[in-house]
């Protein structure tokens, strides 16, 4: 039943969109695996969730981060004193894009 959800051409199309090169054996393996996954989603879609509130977490998650408190900014000299590299009155960082 799950084998009929996706065709080999569907898999090739998705592979092209993702810029992946896959051979015929991989196409068949991906078709089978992705069809199984979609089959599970179809099963979940059949469940009656009327009256069930949306859930963000499956457990009572509490943040471990501290509250944001407004504080005065550091003086420029303090900030520059902590920087590993300084260029005049600026913090120097290595380039992200080259």
Strand content: under 5%
Task: List the helices and strands in order.
Answer: HHHEE
Could you report the average pLDDT, rounded to the nearest whole number?
88
Strand runs, count: 2
**Low-confidence region ranges:** none
The share of residues in helices is 25-40%
What is Rg? 26 Å
CATH fold title of the domain at 2-45: Histone, subunit A
Q: How are strands sequenced across the largest beta sheet?
A: 1-2
- CATH C-level class of the domain at 2-45 is Mainly Alpha
Estimated structural class: mainly alpha
How far apart are the termini? 50 Å
Silhouette: flat
- The number of helical elements comes to 3
For the largest beta-sheet, the strand count, sense and barrel status come to:
2 strands, antiparallel
CATH architecture of the domain at 2-45: Orthogonal Bundle
Structure description:
There is one protein chain. With 98 residues, the protein is mainly alpha-helical. It has a domain at 2-45: Histone, subunit A (Orthogonal Bundle). The protein contains 3 helices and 2 strands, in the order H-H-H-E-E. The protein has a two-stranded antiparallel ribbon. Helix 1 (8-17) packs across helix 2 (24-45). The relative contact order is 0.09. The model has no long low-confidence stretch (mean pLDDT 88).
List the helices and strands and how they pair.
Elements: H1 8-17, H2 24-45, H3 76-82, E1 86-87, E2 90-91
Antiparallel strand pairs: 1-2
Helix pairs in contact: 1-2
């Amino acid at each position: 039943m799950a084998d009929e959800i996706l065709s080999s051409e569907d898999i090739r199309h998705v592979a092209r969109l993702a810029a992946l090169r896959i051979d015929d054996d991989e196409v068949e393996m991906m078709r089978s695996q992705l069809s199984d996954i979609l089959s599970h989603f179809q099963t979940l879609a059949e469940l009656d969730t009327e009256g069930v509130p949306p859930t963000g977490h499956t457990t009572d998650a509490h943040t471990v981060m501290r509250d944001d408190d407004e504080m005065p900014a550091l003086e420029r000299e303090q900030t520059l004193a902590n920087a590993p590299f300084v260029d005049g009155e600026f913090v120097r960082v290595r380039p992200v894009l080259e």
